[in-house]
Structures are given as structure tokens and as C-alpha cells.
């Protein structure tokens, strides 16, 4: 049951990451999606994959994305 809930949450967060207009919100949704996928790997007893998912994708890559988004100049309406 928890696996289905995690899969649905990952799909919803992935769709939000693509569809949101605000870039900061899209990156946060993408980071949350990576965390949910890591938790899903943990539930499925794939601890090695879970650790790399959380450290590399949810950690390092999202820090890079967030820093790029924060350092880019946006036009205010």
C-alpha cells in the first residue's frame, strides 16, 4: 500500500516539476520527487540505490540546480 502511495506522489511531483511556471517551485518539486523515489527504494529494500539516490540526486544535483536558479537574473513583472 505504501509503495502505491509513494509512486503516486512521485508522479504528481514530477508533473508539477515540469508544469510549474515558477522555476524555484519547480526545482523544489524535483528535489521532493528525488527524495520520494529514494524512500521508495528504501521501502523496497534496495538500500545501496537509496543511499545514492538521496546523496547524489537529492543532494548534490539539487544544490546545483538551486544555486543556478538563485544566481540567474529574473525579470520582475
Structural commentary:
By secondary structure, the protein is an all-alpha fold. It has a single domain (2-71), classed as Up-down Bundle (Four Helix Bundle (Hemerythrin (Met), subunit A)), CATH 1.20.120.1200. The chain is 83% helix and 0% strand. It contains 3 helices and no strands. The N and C termini lie far apart (45 Å).
Which class of secondary structure composition applies to the elements? mainly alpha
- Please indicate the percent range of residues in DSSP E strands (runs of 2 or more): under 5%
Q: Helix count?
A: 3
Shape: flat
Q: N-to-C terminal Cα separation, in Å?
A: 45 Å
Number of domains: 1
* Weakly predicted, low-confidence segments: none
Profile the largest sheet.
Answer: none
Could you tell me the number of beta strands?
0
What would the average pLDDT be, to the nearest integer?
90
Question: In CATH's first tier, which class applies?
Answer: Mainly Alpha
Radius of gyration: 14 Å
Q: Give the CATH topology.
A: Four Helix Bundle (Hemerythrin (Met), subunit A)
CATH homology superfamily:
NADH-ubiquinone/plastoquinone oxidoreductase chain 6, subunit NuoJ
CATH architecture: Up-down Bundle
Measured as a percent range, the helix fraction is over 70%
How would you spell out the order of helices and strands?
A: HHH
Amino acid at each position: 500500500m505504501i509503495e502505491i502511495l509513494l509512486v503516486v506522489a512521485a508522479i504528481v511531483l514530477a508533473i508539477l516539476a515540469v508544469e510549474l511556471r515558477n522555476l524555484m517551485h519547480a526545482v523544489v518539486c524535483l528535489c521532493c520527487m528525488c527524495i520520494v523515489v529514494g524512500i521508495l527504494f528504501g521501502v523496497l529494500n534496495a538500500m545501496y540505490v537509496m543511499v545514492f539516490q538521496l546523496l547524489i540526486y537529492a543532494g548534490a544535483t539539487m544544490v546545483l540546480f538551486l544555486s543556478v536558479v538563485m544566481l540567474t537574473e529574473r525579470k520582475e513583472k
